[in-house]
Amino acid sequence: MTADFLLSRYPYILIAVLIGVGLYGMTIKRNLLKKVIGMTVFQTAIYLLYIQGATKQGATIPVRSTEIGTDPALYINPLPQVIVLTAIVVGVAITGVALSLLLVAYRRYGTLDEELLLKRMKESV
Question: What is this structure's pTM?
Fold first, then answer.
């Protein structure tokens, strides 16, 4: 019973693992580049969770068809995909800004280690 339960929900288990990896990277790692990578993994896991939660077994694309009829239960809701697409665009922009800030910090202070960077920033003031 337990194995069947876990196997039927394997996407959620994999998504939970990705969320854990992303949180680990954002909270435990000292290198800021690794924190940005962890943030990106975490964002991707959230996208997957949202899309997986919006799937319907046996539903089809939301294009009206005379063979299927007009029952909304037979069609997939396109709104979650649109929201995730928007979130991906925002996530890429955030990652790009974060990487550019890391580049500036590295050029100025010579490190991406969080503690060392804070120490050097305090010394330069």
Answer: 0.85
